[in-house]
Amino acid sequence: DTAVSQTPKYLVTQMGNDKSIKCEQNLGHDTMYWYKQDSKKFLKIMFSYNNKELIINETVPNRFSPKSPDKAHLNLHINSLELGDSAVYFCASSQSRVAQLFFGSGTQLSVL
Amino acid sequence: AQSVAQPEDQVNVAEGNPLTVKCTYSVSGNPYLFWYVQYPNRGLQFLLKYITGDNLVKGSYGFEAEFNKSQTSFHLKKPSALVSDSALYFCAVRDAAGANNLFFGTGTRLTVIP
Known about the structure:
heterodimer, A: mainly beta, 7-stranded mixed β-sheet, 0% helix, B: mainly beta, 6-stranded mixed β-sheet, 4-stranded antiparallel β-sheet
Protein backbone atom coordinates (compact mmCIF):
# COMPACT_ATOMS: atom_id res chain seq x y z
CA ASP A 1 0.00 0.00 0.00
CA THR A 2 1.25 3.45 -0.89
CA ALA A 3 1.82 5.52 2.23
CA VAL A 4 1.15 8.93 0.67
CA SER A 5 -0.79 8.91 -2.56
CA GLN A 6 -1.73 11.84 -4.70
CA THR A 7 -3.83 12.08 -7.83
CA PRO A 8 -3.62 12.79 -10.63
CA LYS A 9 -0.02 12.10 -11.54
CA TYR A 10 -0.24 14.38 -14.56
CA LEU A 11 -2.54 17.35 -15.06
CA VAL A 12 -2.63 19.35 -18.27
CA THR A 13 -5.04 22.27 -18.42
CA GLN A 14 -5.71 25.67 -19.93
CA MET A 15 -5.06 29.04 -18.31
CA GLY A 16 -7.97 30.29 -16.31
CA ASN A 17 -9.28 26.86 -15.36
CA ASP A 18 -9.84 25.62 -11.82
CA LYS A 19 -8.31 22.31 -10.79
CA SER A 20 -7.79 20.16 -7.71
CA ILE A 21 -5.10 17.73 -6.65
CA LYS A 22 -5.98 15.11 -4.07
CA CYS A 23 -3.74 13.65 -1.40
CA GLU A 24 -4.29 10.86 1.07
CA GLN A 25 -2.01 9.32 3.67
CA ASN A 26 -2.59 6.01 5.43
CA LEU A 27 0.17 6.44 8.00
CA GLY A 28 -1.96 7.96 10.73
CA HIS A 29 0.14 11.12 10.70
CA ASP A 30 -1.05 14.34 12.26
CA THR A 31 0.49 16.81 9.85
CA MET A 32 0.25 17.07 6.07
CA TYR A 33 2.00 19.44 3.67
CA TRP A 34 1.99 20.72 0.14
CA TYR A 35 5.27 21.58 -1.58
CA LYS A 36 5.90 23.09 -4.99
CA GLN A 37 8.94 22.07 -7.04
CA ASP A 38 9.74 24.38 -9.93
CA SER A 39 11.60 23.69 -13.14
CA LYS A 40 14.94 24.31 -11.38
CA LYS A 41 14.00 21.65 -8.81
CA PHE A 42 13.63 24.19 -5.99
CA LEU A 43 11.26 22.95 -3.30
CA LYS A 44 9.06 25.47 -1.55
CA ILE A 45 6.61 24.86 1.27
CA MET A 46 3.10 26.03 0.43
CA PHE A 47 0.90 24.83 3.28
CA SER A 48 0.83 22.51 6.20
CA TYR A 49 -2.11 21.23 8.19
CA ASN A 50 -2.04 19.83 11.71
CA ASN A 51 -5.13 18.10 12.99
CA LYS A 52 -7.24 19.85 10.35
CA GLU A 53 -6.00 23.29 11.28
CA LEU A 54 -3.86 25.37 8.98
CA ILE A 55 -0.70 26.13 10.90
CA ILE A 56 1.44 27.55 8.15
CA ASN A 57 0.33 29.59 5.19
CA GLU A 58 3.32 30.76 3.20
CA THR A 59 3.10 33.70 0.82
CA VAL A 60 1.33 31.87 -1.95
CA PRO A 61 -1.41 33.44 -4.05
CA ASN A 62 -4.88 33.11 -2.60
CA ARG A 63 -5.86 31.27 -5.76
CA PHE A 64 -4.37 28.28 -3.97
CA SER A 65 -6.47 26.83 -1.19
CA PRO A 66 -5.84 23.70 0.84
CA LYS A 67 -8.86 21.68 1.91
CA SER A 68 -8.71 18.96 4.55
CA PRO A 69 -11.89 16.94 5.12
CA ASP A 70 -10.09 14.81 7.71
CA LYS A 71 -6.57 14.31 8.95
CA ALA A 72 -5.82 11.65 6.34
CA HIS A 73 -6.58 13.96 3.41
CA LEU A 74 -5.22 17.30 2.27
CA ASN A 75 -6.41 18.41 -1.14
CA LEU A 76 -5.07 21.40 -3.07
CA HIS A 77 -7.50 23.51 -5.05
CA ILE A 78 -6.24 26.05 -7.55
CA ASN A 79 -8.42 28.75 -9.10
CA SER A 80 -7.77 30.70 -12.29
CA LEU A 81 -4.65 28.78 -13.25
CA GLU A 82 -1.71 30.76 -14.66
CA LEU A 83 1.26 29.74 -16.76
CA GLY A 84 3.56 30.24 -13.78
CA ASP A 85 1.68 27.61 -11.82
CA SER A 86 3.25 24.91 -13.97
CA ALA A 87 5.36 22.81 -11.63
CA VAL A 88 5.43 19.53 -9.75
CA TYR A 89 3.34 19.58 -6.59
CA PHE A 90 4.22 17.20 -3.79
CA CYS A 91 2.08 16.18 -0.88
CA ALA A 92 3.78 14.96 2.30
CA SER A 93 2.95 13.94 5.84
CA SER A 94 4.77 13.57 9.15
CA GLN A 95 3.99 12.26 12.61
CA SER A 96 5.67 15.01 14.55
CA ARG A 97 8.06 17.93 14.40
CA VAL A 98 11.10 15.67 14.79
CA ALA A 99 9.94 13.04 12.36
CA GLN A 100 10.79 12.89 8.72
CA LEU A 101 8.33 13.75 5.99
CA PHE A 102 6.93 11.05 3.76
CA PHE A 103 6.32 12.30 0.24
CA GLY A 104 3.87 11.37 -2.45
CA SER A 105 5.12 10.75 -5.97
CA GLY A 106 4.11 14.20 -7.18
CA THR A 107 1.64 15.78 -9.60
CA GLN A 108 3.08 17.32 -12.74
CA LEU A 109 0.89 20.34 -13.52
CA SER A 110 1.21 21.89 -16.96
CA VAL A 111 -0.75 25.06 -17.69
CA LEU A 112 -1.05 25.86 -21.39
CA ALA B 1 14.55 32.71 9.88
CA GLN B 2 15.60 29.27 8.73
CA SER B 3 17.69 28.61 5.68
CA VAL B 4 19.73 25.89 4.09
CA ALA B 5 22.58 26.23 1.63
CA GLN B 6 23.90 23.57 -0.68
CA PRO B 7 26.85 25.29 -2.31
CA GLU B 8 27.34 22.76 -5.11
CA ASP B 9 24.77 22.35 -7.85
CA GLN B 10 26.62 19.34 -9.22
CA VAL B 11 29.01 16.78 -7.75
CA ASN B 12 30.77 14.19 -9.88
CA VAL B 13 32.59 11.24 -8.37
CA ALA B 14 34.05 8.03 -9.72
CA GLU B 15 32.43 4.77 -8.75
CA GLY B 16 34.09 3.31 -5.68
CA ASN B 17 35.42 6.66 -4.46
CA PRO B 18 34.12 8.39 -1.35
CA LEU B 19 31.51 11.08 -1.90
CA THR B 20 30.56 14.20 0.01
CA VAL B 21 27.56 16.44 -0.59
CA LYS B 22 27.77 19.68 1.38
CA CYS B 23 25.10 21.42 3.41
CA THR B 24 25.15 24.39 5.78
CA TYR B 25 22.19 25.73 7.70
CA SER B 26 20.96 28.70 9.66
CA VAL B 27 18.33 28.54 12.41
CA SER B 28 17.66 30.59 15.49
CA GLY B 29 17.39 27.61 17.84
CA ASN B 30 18.53 24.01 17.73
CA PRO B 31 18.25 22.42 14.31
CA TYR B 32 16.53 19.31 13.16
CA LEU B 33 18.41 18.28 10.01
CA PHE B 34 17.43 15.90 7.24
CA TRP B 35 18.75 14.50 3.98
CA TYR B 36 16.48 13.36 1.16
CA VAL B 37 17.17 11.83 -2.25
CA GLN B 38 15.09 12.28 -5.38
CA TYR B 39 15.37 9.95 -8.35
CA PRO B 40 14.04 11.09 -11.76
CA ASN B 41 10.25 11.48 -11.87
CA ARG B 42 9.92 10.32 -8.28
CA GLY B 43 9.07 11.83 -4.92
CA LEU B 44 11.63 12.53 -2.24
CA GLN B 45 12.90 9.62 -0.16
CA PHE B 46 14.19 10.07 3.36
CA LEU B 47 17.85 9.12 3.93
CA LEU B 48 18.70 10.19 7.48
CA LYS B 49 18.16 12.81 10.14
CA TYR B 50 19.86 14.49 13.08
CA ILE B 51 17.73 15.47 16.05
CA THR B 52 20.07 15.11 18.99
CA GLY B 53 22.79 12.80 20.26
CA ASP B 54 25.76 11.52 18.28
CA ASN B 55 27.03 13.92 15.69
CA LEU B 56 27.58 11.11 13.19
CA VAL B 57 24.27 9.82 11.87
CA LYS B 58 23.94 6.70 9.77
CA GLY B 59 21.11 6.28 7.29
CA SER B 60 19.81 4.30 4.36
CA TYR B 61 21.88 2.84 1.51
CA GLY B 62 25.17 3.27 3.38
CA PHE B 63 24.92 7.05 3.67
CA GLU B 64 25.97 8.96 6.75
CA ALA B 65 26.12 12.60 7.76
CA GLU B 66 28.06 14.52 10.34
CA PHE B 67 26.50 17.32 12.35
CA ASN B 68 28.99 20.08 13.09
CA LYS B 69 27.50 22.76 15.30
CA SER B 70 30.45 25.15 15.18
CA GLN B 71 30.47 25.13 11.39
CA THR B 72 26.66 24.85 11.12
CA SER B 73 27.13 22.05 8.64
CA PHE B 74 25.54 18.69 7.98
CA HIS B 75 27.48 17.15 5.09
CA LEU B 76 26.30 13.89 3.53
CA LYS B 77 28.92 11.21 2.98
CA LYS B 78 29.38 7.71 1.67
CA PRO B 79 32.64 5.75 1.75
CA SER B 80 32.23 4.13 -1.66
CA ALA B 81 29.92 5.55 -4.33
CA LEU B 82 27.74 3.42 -6.57
CA VAL B 83 26.43 4.33 -10.01
CA SER B 84 22.94 3.83 -8.59
CA ASP B 85 23.58 6.69 -6.11
CA SER B 86 23.29 9.14 -9.00
CA ALA B 87 20.33 11.35 -8.09
CA LEU B 88 19.32 14.73 -6.71
CA TYR B 89 20.06 15.22 -3.01
CA PHE B 90 18.31 17.70 -0.75
CA CYS B 91 19.31 18.91 2.68
CA ALA B 92 16.51 20.25 4.89
CA VAL B 93 16.24 21.98 8.26
CA ARG B 94 13.55 22.64 10.80
CA ASP B 95 13.98 24.96 13.78
CA ALA B 96 13.27 22.97 16.94
CA ALA B 97 11.62 25.98 18.57
CA GLY B 98 9.99 27.44 15.53
CA ALA B 99 7.35 26.69 12.96
CA ASN B 100 6.43 23.24 11.81
CA ASN B 101 7.57 23.37 8.22
CA LEU B 102 10.73 21.92 6.75
CA PHE B 103 12.93 24.17 4.62
CA PHE B 104 14.86 22.59 1.79
CA GLY B 105 18.13 23.51 0.15
CA THR B 106 18.37 24.00 -3.59
CA GLY B 107 19.56 20.46 -4.20
CA THR B 108 22.81 18.90 -5.42
CA ARG B 109 22.88 16.63 -8.40
CA LEU B 110 25.24 13.72 -7.78
CA THR B 111 26.64 11.84 -10.74
CA VAL B 112 28.65 8.70 -10.12
CA ILE B 113 30.83 7.87 -13.10
CA PRO B 114 31.41 4.19 -13.86
